[in-house]
């Protein structure tokens, strides 16, 4: 019985893994590479040394944090495609605080910058939530629009008022002071990774152990039953988008304070959309999303390093990610597919809400 | 006898539940064949198999002598089998014509639809605006849309899963007329119901399922209702009724004073309605659907604020629903549509048992083990099968779903119960169970308001009985002075018309 219960999950996992590897193989062969050395190089690059592990974790943090938010939104039947915008605003908040108060002690400055970054993302997410709840504008559209707005605000700032005068003409801000930079524990575990674990735990707690979590999942699965239960759809919508935004904003702040130290045009390499894939593969659960996020981070980081050692093109990572999403949905019409279908249903039903 | 449908040795299990256990069934051409059985007996499952919605584990199906294995409803329709589901499956957000075009009848425009159904509406008049959105139609018309849609596909076997559960007595008569016309054409109707009287009225033969097995098929003339009931439950049902003598009621728990409700188009839904429900009594309100039940129920449920007038709960103004938890309002609410309003159909039962205005937790966190244990004991107490807190309501039969709603609502120790069609779709045993529970609540000093389209139910359980007609309510009167015929007439609006005529 217990074994049988896991068989469907195992088959789904196998379908996803084999399918993804098959696509990866085709992509590697098409790039004219030797699959075995490529795989070796990727694994080495991802996990081969303490430095590699640290890089993998660093890479995983922003996308996982954002994905956790996307997962929460999915459970409420909402699409948060605005991860990138929320990340940018989050990073902007963090860079602003860090540059304005360089004198503060690290113990104050680090959390201050993180919190302001998180708050920035929260506001950005909230905007989409309010537009959805009050004006019935689809969050699919508004979050994408807010991405553009955030991106152009940052672009303007880093080309203009915030541009580092001492930099060699690149559109980047000044580097944040050391007092704002996140420590790395034992040269191995970036503090962002700890925050990521804490966030995943909080999301798990929220979804599985709080009345609010039941409401979030309830509104996602039935608007009419939620109305009957006295659960306010608009409150939940705003709350969920705020949480999603805050997590993505935190992701931006962490990447700024723990990795990039400067804010520029191309601060996020598309984490916001990767996060949607990660949340889907993770089936909207905290653990699934966390594991997938770390795996994707490791994969990206492994491929980046293999770019140097075995000339593996970085687009392979994107192909693998896309294939994984596809196969997870194929292998698991019940879980991931349902998340998408429900959210679509809620979007289509907007007019009658 | 020529068998139009032959199902042989059908087996279907869902995990550990065996829904159909070696069921065989033969339906003759030109008959109305009733299918009886308790909640969860496997009636819907068997018909879903015939209609291609569920794939059987074992068994054979023949339609018109041809062996078929429908994998989906389209296959079944091709083979000549159509089904109108227990919970209509037509797409609510689309218009009638668009729904027809989904099945390949017309292109979604009213003209093309009317053309496609021209033959059918000669026997079954549709009487529906093709441009109307399905979810704006009352249940009886939705059902008719589905029946006409099936017939337009030329099906020879029409399966109706509990069609009368959502109909008024008049509408039932109308449906029976339609069924007769269908079988006159040599087609067959398989008719699922929980009402034995309906079997006696319309069916020629009846098959009884019990715990997934066929316990026998009978010619209706050869078997009495009592015998049928016995076959269904496997034991004799004592003929006792839930009523005690009407008694003096206590203080008013729910009071509506001069309540008016106005619809979106400015029409009057409730007209200056006064109602008092007191501790220790059941007030039952009869009425044909669409006469204001919905707004009245919504007002009592806290979902709607009256446009004028007052709603008092324990002499205080009824707060908004979202404040019920904080204000400790303990009103049990049994909605009419359990699948969409009463339950989160895909969430585990233990979450369902907590989903309501009182959802909260000590220190903000839910003790999952405690919740699951609580859910299990509630499910056992209310006789839900299976009593598994982790399964979703979608895996339960209709009757068991209703028991889950009852379990949740009654577990909060309410002082007032408001129920809309509380026994709709329930088998005889479960109906009795629900009515007994309501009576027990009354005996325990609670106030109970039942709004029902089922006249028999209203008369059986109401201590005071009223009729809602076109948004108006006569003051409910004690059961022992009501006259069944008069209530029937009031439901149909005849009294009103007579009065009008008298006044004119
Ligand atoms: N999709 C499903 N998954 C799991 N169990 C199911 C599913 N559908 C039905 N069952 C189980 O199969 C049994 C038969 O259910 P079915 O819906 O056929 O009953 P029914 O006779 O139509 O009852 P009712 O009168 O309440 O509608 C029930 O025990 C039910 O819980
Ligand atoms: Mg059924």
Short description:
Chain A has helices at residues 2-30, 35-47, 50-75, 83-100, 106-135, 139-159, 191-209, 211-221, 223-228, 233-260, 271-281, 286-310, 315-331, 336-348; strands at residues 184-185, 189-190. By secondary structure, chain A is an all-alpha fold. Chain B is globular, with a radius of gyration of 23 Å.
List the helices and strands and how they pair.
The complex is a heterodimer of chains A (353) and B (504).
Chain A lengths: L1 H29 L4 H13 L2 H26 L7 H18 L5 H30 L3 H21 L24 E2 L3 E2 H19 L1 H11 L1 H6 L4 H28 L10 H11 L4 H25 L4 H17 L4 H13 L5
Antiparallel strand pairs in A: 1-2
Helix pairs in contact in A: 1-13, 2-3, 2-12, 3-7, 3-8, 3-10, 3-11, 3-12, 4-5, 4-6, 4-10, 4-11, 5-6, 5-10, 7-8, 7-12, 8-10, 11-12, 11-13, 12-13
Chain B lengths: L2 E12 L2 E12 L3 E6 L5 H8 L7 E6 L2 E3 L4 H7 L1 E4 L11 H7 L7 H7 L3 H4 L15 H14 L4 E5 L7 H16 L3 E5 L3 H7 L2 E6 L2 E7 L5 H9 L18 E11 L5 E11 L2 E6 L6 H9 L6 E6 L2 E2 L6 H4 L3 E4 L3 H5 L6 H4 L15 H14 L16 H13 L5 E5 L7 H16 L3 E6 L2 H7 L2 E6 L2 E2 L3 E2 L5 H8 L2 H10 L1
Parallel strand pairs in B: 3-8, 3-9, 6-7, 7-8, 13-18, 13-19, 16-17, 17-18
Antiparallel strand pairs in B: 1-2, 1-4, 4-5, 9-10, 11-12, 11-14, 14-15, 19-20, 19-21
Magnesium ion (MG) binds next to helix 1 of chain B.
